[in-house]
Design a protein that fits this description.
Structural class: alpha+beta
Number of domains: 1
Oligomer: single chain
Largest sheet: 7 strands, antiparallel
Strand content: 25-35%
Distance between the termini: 30 Å
């Protein structure tokens, strides 16, 4: 099971247990003729997944509608003291050659907007804590005159 499938299951499975998963997408049966496809997609950066594309598909007519749910629209921009990000940081999943990290608690807050439920976490507490622990203990790296942690 891929990382993306695990995260989609946390969003969709409690409401649609019979959803079908493939890679960064899942398909949900809405009725006899209509399906919903939810897919993590990238925006400006090819390795930063900052939105979920929801596509409604009709078996006879094809695509009925599409809606792109930006995590920044749902959660806002995280303000930071870093001078390189004066406007703040948009929440996203960063895919670094199959090593994943969250920038802000993006998906946890996005779940209610996606399935209209309030108290269902998308990422497990263990997944989030492990990412934070890894981030806190990462050695400082230097590059182009800037310090990153």
């Amino acid at each position: 099971m891929t990382f993306y499938e695990q995260e989609l299951r946390k969003i969709v499975e409690p409401v649609y247990p019979d959803a079908a998963y493939a890679g960064r997408a899942c398909y949900v049966r809405l009725d006899e003729m209509n399906r919903a496809k939810l897919q993590f997609i990238t925006g400006q950066m090819s390795n930063q997944y900052d939105r979920i594309l929801v596509t409604i598909l009709n078996r006879n007519e094809g695509t009925v509608d599409k809606l792109s749910l930006l995590f920044s629209d749902l959660l806002g921009i995280k303000q930071t003291d870093n001078p390189n990000f004066r406007s703040g940081v948009s929440p996203h999943i960063w895919d670094d050659y199959n090593h994943f990290s969250y920038m802000q608690k993006a998906l946890r807050a996005a779940a209610p907007a996606i399935r209209h439920l309030e108290h269902t976490p998308i990422i497990s507490k263990e997944t989030w804590e492990a990412a934070q622990e890894k981030k806190e203990h990462a050695p400082e790296q230097h590059g182009h005159g800037m310090k990153f942690k």
